[in-house]
Amino acid sequence: MQVIKGSDDYVIRLHQDPAELDAAAWDTLVAASPQAGPFMRHAYLLALHRSGSATAETGWAPHFLTVWRGGASPQLMAACPLYLKSHSYGEYVFDWAWAQAYEEHGLDYYPKLLDAVPFTPVPGPRLLATEPGARTALLAAVESLARDNELSSAHLLFIDEADRETAREAGWLLRSTVQFHWRNRAPTAFADFADFAAELQRDKRKKILQERRRVADAGVTFQARLGGEITEQDWDFFYACYRATYRAHHSTPYLTRRFFTLMAHTMPEHWLLFIAEREGKRVAASLVAVDPERRRAYGRYWGSVEYIPCLHFEACYYQPLQWCIAQGYERFEGGAQGEHKMARGLMPIETWSAHWLSHPAFSDAVARFLARERSGMAAYVDELRERTPFKVMGAETE
Q1: pTM, whole model, 2 decimals?
Q2: Name one Pfam family in it (predicted).
Q3: For a Cys staple, 167 with which of 25, 187, 341, 354, CB 3.0–4.6 Å?
Q4: Burial class (CB within 10 angstroms; exposed 0-12, middle 13-18, buried 19+) of 92
Q5: Pairing mode, if any, of strands 281-291 and 11-15?
């Protein structure tokens, strides 16, 4: 840990190991941010580091920042999970074209600074803060760290509204992308999956029921295991499925087996595992993160050891949605990308990132690009919403 900046109001500290941070103080900031969720908890970020998943060796060198109010008893006022990145993998907000443009002009884009939760495209606060002034000071410290070390850029990914406004006021560039989320009916929640399906247009409902029937007719059944119900054997099987998915795409998993071991020990209440079986043999697994306090679930990872038609949709969407409805959850977030999710009742929502580039000419060029992209993105979201899978009142008769 080192002090990198001080003022009459705040002291800024840099931490190159998440273990240096006071977990209770960090989680107090998380608790003070209603939209934070489990992925900003200290245990989650520490597990990414200790498991060898997000480390300097994998291109994620921790440079966490904290903001303290001075005095005899310093108080933690703000913090962020900051990384020095040597690539853009595992981010889900794509800036490869920016890196290529830098390279073509003989400039180094990497390393760059990134405020994000590694491998986790879940919207929420990235500048944890107890007050607006501390949030502003934290963002200024991120920019100063990038500027003082002559880095190309700094980025905040999947930010909430407070972070977006802070970044806008600081002159950072804003970018929007699209995800697909399911929301429970309000004010009267869905009674069961059939009640939810009844809200869909006839063709969408028919397709879902056909897909579910194909999986059932193939003899596949599911077990849902939550928290401490997930055994070490279950985790081993899930990880084999997880690795198989990456292998099928000729890639390497971002997360190590040790990461999930740490999750099972430090955050078991936040994990829900669906295991698919056929003829007494396990054939697939789907892992969902859950936030019992906010009644939200997050689709994370899946894999199978045997191909069965429509099994992916059942394991990744229908089983989790059925569980969310039964448990009274308000939202299921389907993760990055995927228009096919709309046919399963997940609707488009905009997510936001903020970007600071040190080179004036490149910053201006990216600003112009983002203005064009933003116009196209707004039209795209409007078009998606017009293609709602749900019934339009009075437009369909049974």
Answers
A1: 0.94
A2: FemAB_like
A3: 354
A4: buried
A5: unpaired
